[in-house]
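Posted in: Structural Biology > Protein-Ligand Complexes

Title: Requesting predicted complex, zinc ion in pocket

I'd be grateful if someone could produce the 3D structure tokens for the following input. Sequence and ligand are given below.
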Amino acid sequence: MPATPLAAANPAAAAAVALLALEQELVPPDVAYQAISEHPDDPVGALTTANTGQSAATSRARLYAAIADSLGLPYVDLSAGNVAPDIDLVQRVGADTLTEYVAVPARVDGTVQLAAGTPSAPAIGELAEQADHATVALADPAAILAALRRIERTAVVDATVDSTDEEQQASARRRRAAAPTIALDEASNLGWVRDVLNRAIDQRASDVHLSLTSDNHLRVAYRVDGELRPQIVTDVDPVRAINTMVTAAGMDIGAQGVPQSTSFRHTTVDGRRYNVRAELLPTVNEAEVTLRLLASGGLMTLDQMGLLPAYVKRLRRATERSDGLILVTGPTGHGKTTTLYGALMEVRDGRRKIVAIEDPVEYRIDGITQVEVAPNREGGLGWLQVISSALRSDPDIMLIGEIRDAATAHAAVQASQTGHLVLATLHANNAVAAYARLAALGVDPADVAAQTVLVTGQRLLPKLHSCATHRPVSDRDRLRLVASGIEPPDLVHYPAGCDACDGQGTRGRVPLVEMLSPDQTLRDAVAAGADEGALTRLLSDRNFLSFADEARRLLDQGLAAPPDIAARLREDVVNLAAETAEGER
Ligand SMILES: [Zn+2]
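-- Reply #1 --
Done. Output follows.
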């Protein structure tokens, strides 16, 4: 095997790398010379951080691809969509060993490759054998280490293998082979549950799903920034694991054939407190457990939500009113309730009584009377029942978790007509569509026109991390954007991935919001029964910033990537149609 060009302080190797960088036109000759003479130990780093006018992530990838080519090795881009580190193989070989030799087994279009930072190191061949006789390939060492850290953080059960002791490692492998499932130790049951929760919190996950795969392994999926990150855990008895979670959550282990829900508290080692809401769902394939993690005091204020300052101001002004209807539309899981609570937190000064009705109550907040609706639970209260008893308790402000049918729609509008400020969420594709939705639910358009003071449409998109690359929009994305009604810019940002964002390229979420403050002309049109198309045309003459306008701003500011914007705007239309049909049944 040829000598690695990455060997430390090897001037010849550094020069080879510099030549490749020149061939790839990544750097001008003077920069290449300076980089390798000053940093012979890290030529790639020096060359790609040199000011080249290109993003470092792109040039790193190109340089490594060129190095791989010159070595006659395949190159693996660990951030590519068709590449995924193989968690089972990482656990089998040992994360510590792999970290030491900077290598990670990955599936590339289904075949296993051992992505290595120094493919010529003697141990790499042996590791490749252990990893299902993988082909050795070159990858960016920084990306390999980031992938391993990510796996280590997410794996529920660590491979407890001493990385330096080959013999011990082999015997650990034999033990695991002899006993493919390790039963959870009685004494450590609760520890296992705590471990699952702590890992979820470390990853900033909002939910954890535990289920069985068809070949009887435990599937643990963490929802981070709205996306599920599933993994298969082979080292625990899956049924035992789910039973343990059921027991720990205080649910009835003998009644796994019926849906159950409970909540319990969890405190992390460093003292952060969480409410955990557990749901058990009987499925054809054993029970499934979902955990939702709610940080105590974890609600965002309006200022922390990433809304335009002008929108924050309009929300604040709307909540100062003594009556009227404030609506937030959007699909499930897009932060509608969070926005309304953000607004409520600012008005809970004790001078006005606030009642919030939800199914279920997601955050517990001092200063707000919270009532839980549970229409499907035995002895649970229905929406109308709760709304009317809440109205008798003399509230000034009422939050109705969701206007889901004709009865709740009427109740919400009526409450807003009788001296209450009502905040509610509604399934509708955008702000304007809220009017059509309420009309479809049988509410008199004149009442809606008179009562509505603010309508917000809201989506959440994966937020690009600062490592994003700025480059020409692809032809495909150009089409996607046009199809979503967005005029595509020439240059856009695409996710890259770095250590700080766990190689994901995105971190957190960014709201895509349109906010409609109806004026008299719009009210008149709504009262006269104008349809969505007519209202949209009316708004286009005004200073209304639609989803498309806002999406363009997010693109221009590098906050979201074109595929995410286009996909969310389209997918949601489909999901929404399904959810709406569900609600009306
Ligand atoms: Zn990043």
